[in-house]
């Protein structure tokens, strides 16, 4: 196969990450500089698109638009000559209108052109681009091309479907990490998010936990992402759970209750005492509540088969802080009623969960386990 015929799929099958397609916009007065830029980008594993990629006979403007549309990244080379050329501005505007990420390479003292991209981050380099390889290596192109979903601008959003709730939970938890922070996880619910498996969606365990209410692989993928995102916070900033391991779900299938409790137990046993406190109470069945630090609150109160009718996400920081303090008061009250100190609650919960697993485990093995 000729080099020009190689596909991105070939990179994937070879275990390599395919390079991003970068459209380079430039002034033809800067041909020598463009040659250097193209070489640096290709050496970095990127695929360069520019007007030299256009086949003979294609309308120039349509071809340019097509190349920009199919680029992962738009990179204008900004020089003093480029700033004077109207088509450079036009191409930048077209890329921004198509939501193609724009990363200008600005030659020293050229400056960013106009107000349209004055707020964009740019790579500022020396005149002969000698420092571009180093600056390009330091740039996080993944974050630019594949950004996290934007946080809600409103303080409150409502998820009407379980899939939407689960997707948002993972996204918002990950976004807190993206901002450089971790938050203590407080969660109140029957078995918590840690009864969700961390295994691949093809694993038998997902069918065992679903029982007769089989869910899609897509939903399982979202649930796994929720578990992983919340666990990242729990292992960094700690976790307090209010659960009810006595809830019996065997009407949904003989393995449902035991499978979920075994998954939960694996997480609880893997956490040190200083990072996990867990109280057991029938109060956990009054709804589903997740509080991540004082970043956001997610609360569901109206159950339905397969999930909750509505989940309210609240990003109001004072509200999240107030709800966290209310949670802690309730947690400590439950521990006091049981005569258990919060710091000793993990051990007591492990004992109770094991008893519930023993009572719920069917004679026939689930996923090869008794």
Describe the protein in words.
This protein is an alpha/beta fold. It folds into two domains: 143 residues, 3-Layer(aba) Sandwich (Rossmann fold); 205 residues, Endonuclease Chain A (Endonuclease, Chain A), CATH 3.30.870.10. Helices cover 42% and strands 15% of the residues. The chain is built from 13 helices and 14 strands. The strands form three sheets. It has a seven-stranded mixed β-sheet with strand order 6-14-11-10-7-8-9, with helices on both faces. The protein has a five-stranded parallel β-sheet with strand order 2-1-3-4-5, sandwiched between helices. Helix 2 links the parallel strand 1 and strand 2. The two termini are 53 Å apart. The N terminus is likely disordered.
């Amino acid at each position: 196969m000729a080099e020009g015929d190689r596909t991105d799929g070939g990179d994937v099958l070879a275990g390599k990450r395919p390079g991003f397609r970068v459209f380079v916009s430039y002034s033809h007065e800067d041909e020598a500089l463009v040659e250097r830029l193209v070489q640096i980008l290709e050496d970095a594993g990127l695929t360069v698109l520019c007007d030299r990629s256009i086949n003979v006979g294609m309308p120039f403007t349509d071809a340019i638009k097509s190349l920009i549309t199919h680029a992962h990244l738009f990179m204008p080379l900004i020089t003093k000559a480029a700033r004077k050329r109207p088509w450079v501005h036009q191409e930048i505007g077209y890329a921004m209108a198509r939501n193609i990420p724009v990363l200008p390479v600005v030659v020293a003292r050229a400056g960013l052109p106009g107000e349209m991209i004055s707020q964009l981050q740019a790579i500022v380099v020396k005149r002969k681009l000698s420092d571009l390889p180093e600056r390009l290596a330091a740039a996080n192109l993944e974050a630019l091309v594949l950004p996290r979903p934007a946080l809600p601008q409103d303080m409150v959003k409502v998820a009407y479907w379980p899939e939407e709730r689960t997707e948002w939970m993972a996204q918002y938890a990950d976004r807190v990490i993206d901002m450089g922070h971790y938050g203590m996880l407080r969660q109140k619910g029957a078995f918590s998010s840690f009864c969700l498996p961390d295994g691949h969606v093809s694993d038998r365990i997902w069918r065992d936990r679903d029982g007769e209410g089989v869910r899609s692989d897509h939903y399982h993928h979202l649930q796994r992402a929720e578990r992983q995102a919340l666990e990242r916070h729990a292992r960094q900033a700690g976790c307090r759970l209010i659960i009810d391991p006595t809830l019996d779900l065997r009407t949904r299938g003989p393995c449902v209750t035991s499978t979920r409790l075994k998954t939960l137990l694996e997480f609880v046993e893997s956490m040190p005492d200083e990072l996990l406190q867990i109280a057991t109470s029938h109060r956990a069945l009054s709804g589903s509540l997740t509080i991540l630090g004082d970043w956001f609150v997610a609360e569901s109160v109206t159950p339905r088969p397969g999930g909750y009718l509505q989940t309210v996400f609240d990003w109001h920081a004072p509200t999240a802080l107030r709800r966290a303090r209310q949670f802690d008061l309730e947690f400590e009250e439950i521990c006091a009623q049981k005569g258990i100190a919060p710091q000793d609650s993990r051990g007591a919960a492990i004992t109770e969960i094991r008893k519930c697993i023993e009572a719920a485990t069917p004679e026939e093995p689930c996923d090869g386990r008794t």
